[in-house]
Every structure is written in C-alpha cells, then in structure tokens.
Amino acid sequence: MLFAKGKAPFIFDKSRFVSDYSDTLNSSICSVIKADKIAELARQSGFCRRSSKLKPEAFIDTLVFNSIDHQISLQDCCDDLIRQSGKSLSKVGLHKRFNESGVEFMKLVLAEQMATRLAIRNHDTWQPFARVLITDSCKFCLPDEYKESYPGYGGAVTNPLMNIQYSFDLKNGDWENLELTKATKNDQSYSKRTACRIAKDDLHIRDLGYVTMAYLRGVTERKAFFLNRLQPKWKPVHKATGKVIDWSSLYERMRTNKQACFETEIVLGKGKKALECRLIVVPVAEQTWAERIRKAQKQAKSRGRELSEEYKQRCRFSVFITNVDPAIFNSNDVIELYRLRWQIELIFKSWKSLLNLHRVKPVKKERFECLLLARFIWILINWKIFRCLDDSIQKENREYACSHWKFFKQARLWAYALRMVMNHNITFEAWLGLFIFPIIKSLLIEPKKGKKASFCIVNDIFNPLS
Known about the structure:
Elements: E1 2-3, E2 10-11, H1 14-29, H2 35-45, H3 56-64, H4 74-85, H5 91-97, H6 100-115, E3 131-141, E4 161-169, E5 175-182, H7 187-193, E6 202-206, H8 213-221, E7 225-229, E8 237-238, H9 247-256, E9 262-268, E10 275-283, H10 286-302, H11 309-314, E11 317-322, H12 331-339, H13 342-353, H14 365-396, H15 404-411, H16 415-422, H17 428-436, H18 454-462
Parallel strand pairs: 3-6, 6-7
Antiparallel strand pairs: 1-2, 3-4, 4-5, 7-11, 8-9, 9-10, 10-11
C-alpha cells in the first residue's frame, strides 16, 4: 500500500506484517486463552474445584467479549453461554460463580496475559535504559453500594472511588503493572510497596504524587534512573555553593538574560540521606503563573493558610529533577521526555470515553470486579495488536505512527470478529485482511499544528539516527 500525505509517502507491506507479527501475536494472545491454561488458572484460584456445567474458558470468553461498553446482565451472560458453548445455566447459578474465587481467577488470567510479552523491540536502542516506565493512577466514582469496599477520601460522606494503578513500559510496549485499589491508598504508598520492582537501568517517569525522598533513593540505590518534577516543599541546594536556590533572583536573572532554560547540580536532603541530581528549570507564561497562584490560594484558603512569597516565586517555573547523565539527555531532552508522561493520560481517557470504564451499575461487588477485570483483559489483547501495528508502521515510516485513540475506537466495532479469532473460527491472517489492512490509513496519527507528536519525541531522543 502506497499513498502520500503531504510528506514522505507512507508504505505498509501487508505480507511483511503477517510474516513478522502473526506468530508473535498468536503466541502472546491466543496461547493464554487456551483451555488447558485457563483450566490450570481456574484450579489455582479455586474457581473450579469439581466438574461443572460452566467451563472456566466459557466464563472467560463470555465476560471478556461482552463487557466492553457496559456491564451486561446475568440473563445476557446466560444467553451468550448457550450460543457459544451450548451449555444452559440459570441466572442464580451464574450469580453464585461471581465470588472471591471468581475474582482471583480473573486476576490470574489478566496477570498471565501481562506476563506474556511481545518480542518486537530492538534492545540495542534506547540505551542505556532496559525499560522506560511511565506510572500514574486513574480514579472514578462508584455507586453508593460499594462504600465499604472502596471508600472515598471523606469516608462515608463522599462517593466511593475506584483507584487504578497503572504502569507501562514505553520502550518495549509491555504492561508492567495494573492494580485495582482503594482511593485511600495514595500514590506515595504505591511507590513504597512497589520499590522492590525497580530494576537496574530502568528509567522511571512518574507524576509528582509518587515522588518521595525514599523513592528517589530507592531508584539510585538500584542503579536505575528517575525523571520527575520537584516537590514544591523541597528546598534544593546548589551543589557548588551550598546555598538554597533563590527562586526570585533566578527568575529576574533569567528574564534579564532572556534565558529559556536553566540547569544546575543540586543536593536534596541532608547528611547520609542527601541525594545529588540535576535540576532543570523552565519559566512559565505569566498567564500560567497567575492560574497556578489562583488555584493555590483557593486551596490554601480552604485550609486556613496563606501562600508564602517563596512559594509564589517557585510557581513561576516548571522544575524537573533527574539523575540521568547530561551526556545522555540534555536539558531540552529532559523537558521533552517528561511530556511523554501525558501519554498515560490519553490511555486513561480512552478507557473512559471509548470503553466506558467508569460507568458502573450497582451489582454484586464480585460481579463488578470480574467484569472490570474482563474489560482489562480485552483491552490488553487489543493493546498488543496495536503495539505490533505501530511498531510495523514506524519501522518502515519514520514520519508516521498508529494512533492509540483511533485504534481503540475501531476495536470496539470489530470485537465480535476478534472473538472469532480467539475461538479459532477464522484465522488471524484473515481477520487482519478484513478489519485492519483496509483502514490502515485512517489509523495514522495526525500531528496537531505547533505540537510535536509523542512518537516524534521518542525518535528524536532515543533514535536520532533511525
């Protein structure tokens, strides 16, 4: 396929995609849904202790491919089971299967799907990083029936909240972690619990809510890398002079010299727990600064406090810290790379806007959790297809990439056909020819004027010569 789009012609070789990725996708996706693997996980979780009319693979199939846009009724599930497996099950019988063992079973299937990785990246690139991990959380309100299990921040007086902790590897395209937790378990507690997962040569890009001194020390002790914003309450000290940074003086100096960026070596903390790293400072527009002050004053007033002059001056900047060597990332690279953290926000948006993840009706708690986990299994299956498609496009075309949003918008429409692939009713190659290849052009990212697309940032920083 060859066409022009106001720049270099786009080339997509269908036969090459099939030869390069078909086996990878089949082994990564279909093998996890096989009956023997599902049966093993069902026994492990206690979901299947004896012979039953409801086979574990039928349970998975019905939930995964019928809960994409909304929570289906028990009768819908029973009807689907009859159509797909010929097994009749009463609503009461199915209702009983939504229990703690059922939830654990769904968690194991999701974990197995996450553990089966795609081998599609050239590991000689993106040096010196083994993984580039972006982590964030997504919250949404639940019906009042779930207050006890998922309390909000204000306890019984606020809406129940579901908190999803999510981490993915930008380099290899893998989901590294997904947890359904209470909103009362904040991001800092997540950092503490998951510190053991930090590996040598990882690069971690995280939102400010995750960042503590203990987290930063944990990253450096494990010979990994961090990139995040500076906590507003921290007082960085110039490594060379030992003096605390004066934000007011720095702003005046940068404005006088028309300096767009400032970098220095700093020390955070004191004594044996002190940490050395780079500080990169970028002034923000006056309008942005004024909006920051307005929001901060509103929050301070609600707590009976006032903003300090130092804090107001600190708000004039976007401030980043990292322990990556300047020879690897210069200041501009650091600023651009942090922008990639917003990719996870786009993923959350697609989960809510396209897949209605946040629309929950009051049903048995375990049924709600099973259906939510089933939706994530479906999302991950399609994520792997998206990653292979995007990888294939970028290998042949440096100026093009696949749009995550456009892909999942279409994925909802072909869910029934993908189910046929999983159940071996049509081949994966036939499915590609019917549902992917004819619309490949419409799945491309269309960069917004004046904004660099995320894949361009990645190419410019990690693969400048590709």
